[in-house]
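Researcher: Quick one. two chains, 852 residues in total.
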Amino acid sequence: MAAQTVARTTDSVNLGPAAALSCRECGHRVPLGPVFACEECFGPLEIAYDFSGYDTEELRKRIESGPANIWRYAPLLPVPSDVADKPNLNPGWTKLVQADNLARELGVTGGLFVKDDSGNPTHSFKDRVVAQALEAARAFGFTTLSCSSTGNLAGAVGAAAARAGLRSCVFIPHDLEQGKVVMAAVYGGDLVGIEGTYDDVNRFCSELIGDPAGEGWGFVNVNLRPYYAEGSKTLAYEIAEQLGWRLPEQIVVPIASGSQLTKIDKGFQELIRLGLVEDTPYKIFGAQAEGCSPVSAAFKAGHDVVRPQKPDTIAKSLAIGNPADGPYVLDIARRTGGAVEDVTDEQIVDAIKLLARTEGIFAETAGGVTVGVTRKLIENGVLDPSKTTVVLNTGDGLKTLDAVAGTGLTATIRPNLDSFHEAGLA
Amino acid sequence: MAAQTVARTTDSVNLGPAAALSCRECGHRVPLGPVFACEECFGPLEIAYDFSGYDTEELRKRIESGPANIWRYAPLLPVPSDVADKPNLNPGWTKLVQADNLARELGVTGGLFVKDDSGNPTHSFKDRVVAQALEAARAFGFTTLSCSSTGNLAGAVGAAAARAGLRSCVFIPHDLEQGKVVMAAVYGGDLVGIEGTYDDVNRFCSELIGDPAGEGWGFVNVNLRPYYAEGSKTLAYEIAEQLGWRLPEQIVVPIASGSQLTKIDKGFQELIRLGLVEDTPYKIFGAQAEGCSPVSAAFKAGHDVVRPQKPDTIAKSLAIGNPADGPYVLDIARRTGGAVEDVTDEQIVDAIKLLARTEGIFAETAGGVTVGVTRKLIENGVLDPSKTTVVLNTGDGLKTLDAVAGTGLTATIRPNLDSFHEAGLA
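Model:
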């Protein structure tokens, strides 16, 4: 892998304010390139920005007059300044729904909001991260966009590549449900089933990156991961702007790899440093399913490291048993005064129905996890109902219909009024 | 029915610029109320507006500084001026995608755009019309929102009622596919299966409106139809504004009842009259599935009336065999120099895949109909590829996965490089 990535690393890459890659562990800096692990300590690389020269009020105006998608924040992302003119899916600027009905049910008095990312082009937050990876792929001259996936990511990569005119080749376990295969295959890229588990798929992708056959391939969540991950910052930016340029006091975020939660914290910190919001305290809460709760378990046990688990939950989009950013999540939850909690599959389903019934939002299982954890944290006195609270819904219920398959008809009647009255529906 | 509707008719109803109901056939005017048929000639009632006193440039500014949803056009809709502050799903302001890849495939040189209404809250254009019906329901004091439906509308009504805090009671044929039942039931309203066909469901709803049991019920597509239908005007407004306040030269619209097509024409005409766009010529093209093509058949035969058909097509959201607005559609297509055309189920599936492959948009079957008809009209020399053309996608492919169920894996391999190379994927 080293040979390929070094060859593609160049100082002339134009990714806007992205200045270099920097190791989150040891701080070692390398030029922008398709690398993700520190050559010194094997720590994760992330984007280091040069935000110098930004005038706060000029920047705010530029953002507010920008497009109604993530590219309004282009000055804060690893993308060229003309990104909005390029063919991509233009995700983001999804609704921040003031959830007064849900607030009443949960007893929240300080203002409750649902950030509803089911409004993205392929109906999950993955469009945000893939859009960043796509720009990095273009900058590094990659011609194939790739990933390993079991669901949302496959569709997001297939759609983004189609629109951008790149080839896509997505790897999935060969025995995935037919519905998910169709959703990923419809965009016309290559969709390859791997005889093995999701772990086998991942291992194969790492092998392919190091092989000449992988030359010219950008794996959004592997060799483009430092760029990809930054897409989650846009959730923080949008929430703050939609609240009138202020930070929420509490936010509940789902945990899969944990990357999203860490980037939301990074986004809030940047907004403070840039003067776009006041430096008011916020607590970040992580949400997991009980059937895959390694970070929640570590938080409760007071550990700094995360012990891997074998996932067994209906919240498949969160089912990462060995979350790479787990230790960073623990650190952020503790530092901000938040917590990490988990809910059972039954509580997830109840929460999906609660959100649908109160706000007309049909969330995927990951949304059931955040709403369910919010309810539990309030009941346990951990989350303060008198404070402004934002809950993330990162995906769409249409993709996880099985979770609520028990939902059905209230009644079946014959087509006449007598039958209607007998059923007690008036 | 008359007794109930007259009782609820009042001159003090505040629905913004909506001044009265007016018969499209004989022009007879009645006060705003939950009525849909002219008492003189049984013609369809529609909203008559009072747009007097609008200054063009003030109106344009007010729209442009409005919210990123349909309520930016509140001054042109039958809704109170504070509509944006009420709990509703805030649909609209969906993406107008510049479809350069699709344009290349179809040979369009004058600019091709897809208006992608899968971005609405419940992922179909029905959210636009239901949002209008909801405001009318509130104005008339209805406490239950209802409809007959076989799909998209059920979910849109259930979600809108949940968010607005109204009861919902939706009627569907009892033997609908389980997936569609789940999508409609998840919002927690009453979902009633009727033992019979969709026609039986409709007949029963009309009976219920005339019964005391239906007191306080707003049927979005029956007694609230004049308000409901106006929601489709917002498609015209958004397209014109997103094109920089100009009309497209050609637009391809799907036909179910035909209402949407007539309201898009009405919207364009209003924009011209209000001075918001120049009075440039536009052609409106209607699109049907061959398996339910009563309007297309009448257009080709040169008839003014539409002979009902028994639908048999995968495009179920367009499968209305006896379209109420058929004659008006024929009139508009002929008056604007457009046409009505149909495509086979196979062409619909091909078009869904074409749109996904070129633009990363996964459309429901109705979107396959419009894209397929666009291709056919270009091939036949009816649609001019040198002119600016807008194609509507009114729904989401996730809701009609069966249509593309044949789509699948490119290859299945073992998790190693040898197997990858053997499959010829490099």
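Residues 411 and 423 of chain B are 7 Å apart (CA to CA).
Researcher: Thanks, that's what I needed.
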